[in-house]
Amino acid sequence: MPARQALADIQHLLTHVLQAPSRWQALPPFADTDGELAAQVLDEAAKFVDNAVAPLQRMGDEEGCRFDAGQVHTPAGFRDAYQAFWQAGWPSLSCAPEDGGQGLPAVLECVLFEWLAGANHGWTMAPGLLHGAYECIKHHASDTLKAQYLEKIATGEWLATMCLTEAHAGSDLGLVRTRGVLQPDGSARVNGSKIFISGGEHDLTDNIVHLVLARLPDAPAGPKGLSLFLVPKVLPDGKRNAVVCERIEEKMGLHGSPTCVMRFDDATGWLVGEPNKGLNAMFVMMNAARLHVGLQGIGLLEAAWQKASAYAAERRQMRAPGAADTSLIQDHPAIRRILHTQRAWIDGGRVLAYHTALQLDVAKHHPDAGERAAAQRWCALVTPVLKAALTDQGFHGASACLQVFGGHGYVREWGIEQIVRDARVAMIYEGTNEIQAIDLLVRKVLADGGQGLTALLASLPGPTPSPAAGARRHALIEITQTLAIAAQSEPELPYWVADDYLRAVALVLLDWAWGQIRAASQGERGSEPTGSSERGNEPAHNPERWSAPAQALTQWVLPEFDMRAAILRQRIAQSLEIKTKLAAIA
To answer: Which active-site residues does the annotation give?
Structure first.
C-alpha cells in the first residue's frame, strides 16, 4: 500500500477537520508541535513505509517464518527493515524524552502504525505491542526494572510480547494456570505454557521482553488472583533465560509474523505492579493495543481499496448504463457502490480513531482536570467501539474490494487475497469483537444507566447535527434507557444484543465524524489547500474529493442503523412483554 497515496488526505483530516495543531497548543508537552512539524514527520514516515516495509509484504507471506530447534527465522529482509526502523527512531515517536523517546503526539504514532499495517501486516506485528509495553512498564514497574528495560522498549532496541493466553484459557483469563513464585532476592520463578504469542521468538532483536500473567502460590482463584511478571529472553547478566519456543503455528494469514507456543521452565522474572493486580497493569497495555488494532482495520481496508480502485480504473467489462461502448468497471454502479462505501468507512473511521488518539493526550497532559476526565471517559467508551467496528469493516470491506477483481481477486497474483487473510485475525485478538461489545454495553454503558453515553452524545464537538443525525442520537439514547429497564428482569438480554448495540453506536459516531469532514470541506473551519490527495486530480481540500463517500454514507451505510435499532427494539419489547406477563401472574 503506498502510504504516500493517503498522505494528503490524512494531513487534511488532522489539520483542518480535527484541527490537531491548535489542540496541541493546549497541552504543555506539545506546545511547540505545529502543523509543519507534523507534516514533516508524516512525510518521512510515508517514505520509510513505502521504501523499507511495503516491498517485503508478498515475500513475507510466501516465505513465512521458519522454526528450527527453538529458534525462529523471520523472512528475508525483515531483520534489516526492523533494524532500520528502530535506529531511525520510529518506535519512540510518542514516548517521553526522558525515556529515550521523541515526545510527539500519540496521533502521529497512530498514523504510522496504520500505514505499516496496510503495507505489511505481518512485519508490523513485531513492533505492534511496543508502546503498550512501554506504558505498562512506565506506570507499574519498579524503578529498578525501569532503569533496565524502559529505554530499550521505548526506542525499540528490544521488542516485547504480551503472554496471556493458555490452551484452556483464552478470553477467560481467570483460568490461567502459569505460576510465579517470589524469591528472597526479589526475583520470581515462572513456570507454565502460553500459546498464540505474537513474536514470542524471532531474530529481529537481541532480546525480547515477555510480560507474563501468572499466579502466586497463595493467590485467590479467578482473574483477581493474577499477577504480572517481566520475563526477558536474555537476563541482565547476558545469560539465556529458561524461556523456550516449542513451535510456531500454521495460520490462515500473517505468515510473516511468528505466532509461538512458549514454555517457561523455572524462568527468572520480576513482579510488575502489586501482587494479584496483574490485570490492572496488563490492561494499560491492552487498551493501547486496541486502538492500534482498530487502526489495523483501517490500514488494511485502505490497502484493499487502493488495489481495487486501481484495478477498476483499468479493467473494461460490458457497458455501463448509458455508455456507448465497453466501460471501465469503475463506471458500473455496483462497483462504484463498493468503492465509495469503503471510502466512507476509511475516512470516517480515521476521524474517529485520530480524535481518540488526540483525546489520549488530553487525558494525560491537559492542565484542566475536567478536560482530562472528559477525555478519559471518551477513550473508555469509544475504544471498544473502534476496535470492533473498524476491524469488522477491515475484513468485510477488504472482502468487498476483492469482489471488484472478480475471479482475479481469488488468485494470488493481485495480492488482494493476502489482505483478506491477514485482516481476519484482528477481529479475534486483543479481545474478540464480541467481548468488546459486551465490555461496551454491560461494563460501561449500563453500569451507570446510560448516563455516560448520553453525556458523550450530548457533548460531541462540531456543528449542529442534521435532523437525521439528531434523530439517530435520540433513538440510541431511548434504546439505551429502555434496555437498562429490560435488563433488570432479563439479565441475559444485554449479552444477546451487545453486537447490535455496538454497531449502532459505531454508526452514530461515524455519522458525527462525517459531520466534521463536511464542515471542513464546506469551509466552516477556514480550511486551506493541503495538496493533492492523489484520488484523481482532486486535492484533499476540494469538497468534490469527499462528496462520493459522503453520499455512500447516507445511502448505503447509515441505513444499517435503522436495522440495528429495529432488532434492539424488538428484542427489548419481547423482554418487557415477558416481564409484564410474569407480573400479572404474580
So the answer is: 430
